[in-house]
Amino acid sequence: MVRSAAVAVTAFYADHRRRFKLWTLLLMLSLLILLLRDATPLAGLLPSPAALPASSVLVAVFLAALACEYMDSALGMGYGTTLTPLLLIAGFHPLAIVPAVLFSELLTGLAAGALHQRDGNLDLLHDRQARQTLALLAALSGVGAIAAVLVAVRIPTWWFSLAIVAIVLTMGGLTLATARRRMRYRASGVLAVGLVAAFNKGLSGGGYGPLVTAGQVVSGVPARHAVGITSLAEAVTCFVGLAAYLTLGKPIDWGLALPLASGALLSVPLATATVRRLPERAIRSAVGLLTLLLGLISLAKLLS
How many Å apart are CA 214 and CA 37, to the nearest integer? Predict the structure, then answer.
């Protein structure tokens, strides 16, 4: 098993040698900038050192965003759902976290969608079903995100969160149960999960990917396509949600948003290349397992 994994990694590197070299260079440069920011505030490109957390905190945020976004761009879920609780544990304020996460996912969603198209995981130019699915999700994303921001302080969030967890667990179970079956495309399924997921995204900053990616697979969208479509649809949701927060006077905390966006963007080229090499059945099984895992973690957190 170890030998086959080593062979796979070697082959992956050989196929993407230039991408790996550029990625390594950018990673080292980004870490250097974060570590040296106390001495050099980058000629005004970043907030002054006094306005930012400690360098060690910035590096931790950067690396956490990189890891979470790799998972998100490769499997269509996990960035906001995983990163938001980590940032809360680290002591960041919720009203600073959600706009910062939305901003970083707006950038990474667009970047991931473009690279999924370039790497052949998605073909929006010639695949009518993919275009239709993206259009449905994008339209619903705007409605759901605006509704979430407007009612965020007016609903019993515990019960809503419990309903979301139940839907996520159901989608994960259905995805695993149908991993070996060819599903018929159903636009109604895409509509239902898209609206609920967008509302949850605008409310909490997370939870979009598990619902939308698994919901697309259950509705008959090929798993590789679903991952790419989710990235682009999530970017629309993030744009609308972020615009609503800014309109309501909730500013972006750049001290948090910039390391988040930098780390997340850096993971995208490797993630889309990973999806290209994975077989359809493996992606569907991974989507189902990760959806169930995130659902169980969310349930445990909700009941604790």
Answer: 40
Question: Rounded to two decimals, what is the model's pTM?
Answer: 0.76
225 contacts 128 by C-beta, under 8 angstroms = no
How far is the C-alpha of 239 from the C-alpha of 113, rounded, in Å?
15
**Token pair in block for residue 6:** 């080593």
Mean pLDDT of the chain: 78
Q: What is the pLDDT of residues 213-269, one digit of tens each?
A: 888 888 888 888 888 999 998 888 888 878 888 888 888 888 889 999 999 999 998
| Cα gap 281→295, rounded to integer Å | 21
Identify the residue whose tokens are 């970017």. Answer: 235
Average pLDDT over residues 81-106: 82
- Please identify which residue in the block is written with the tokens 């707006």: 106
Q: What is the DSSP code string of 43-80?
A: GGTS--GGGS--HHHHHHHHHHHHHHHHHHHHHS--HH
Q: Over the Cα atoms of the chain, what is R_g?
A: 19
For residues 38 and 59, the answer to whether their CB atoms sit within 8 Å is no
**How far, in Å, CA of 169 to CA of 46, rounded?**
40
32 vs 104, higher pLDDT: 104
DSSP structure class, residue 253: -
The answer to whether the CB of 230 falls within 8 A of the CB of 244 is no
How far apart, in Å, are the Cα atoms of 185 and each of 104, 132, 171, 215, 218?
A: 31, 11, 16, 11, 9
Residues 202 and 145: beta-carbon distance below 8 Å: yes
Specify the higher pLDDT residue, 214 or 28.
28
Compute the distance between CA of residue 50 and CA of residue 259 in angstroms, rounded to an integer.
16
d(CA 247, CA 99): 12
The per-residue pLDDT for range 178-209, each reduced to its tens digit, is: 666 666 677 777 877 787 777 766 666 566 77
* Residue 296: Cβ-neighbour burial (10 angstroms; 0-12, 13-18, 19+): middle
